[in-house]
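Our working data are protein records whose layout never changes between entries. Getting from the letters to the tokens is the skill we practise here. To make this concrete, we reproduce a full record directly below:
***
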Amino acid sequence: MAFALPVDLPSADPSRLRAAVRRAFAAAADTPASTVPPPARLRAGAEQVKSDETSASDDARYFQALLEIGYLVASADGLAAEERQALAELLEEATGKTVDQAVLRLHFEDLDQAVAMLGRHERLRRSAADLEELGAREEALGFATLVAIADGSFAEPEAQALIELGRDLAFSDEQIRSLVDQVVSQVKQALAS
């Protein structure tokens, strides 16, 4: 039997859900065992990417991998213009405006072309390979889950992309389910607040 990843999110207006995702993301800074990347780490990576001398640093590779993974999972069911905008806004905010929306939208177009040439599976596999430490791999799956939820829905293609990503990150199906459930719980708590 194939592994399924149903996600039970309460129905909410997409803008309210995006706000809850932002709150869940911001709360990661205060939660030591969070499965969501701390905003400070994303900001540091974004700053390293902007700097030509240090763009090959661990922080830069981490940021680039998470950015690509988040986009690849969220776009698995296609991204309308407003969904791209919401994703760019979330990432801009997550990096403390280190990377602006216009740069992110250009990067998304590049990723679309890379997916067209190599396929989503290959791009996910390559990005996952850049994350060796367990904490970074957990944060990547958590971040991809948040980004997939941020567009206001969680469709089957996104769930399948998360499963594929989790397996590429060397997680068992049970670990994938647990990590995704933790993030969904954080979003539900943020929705309730």
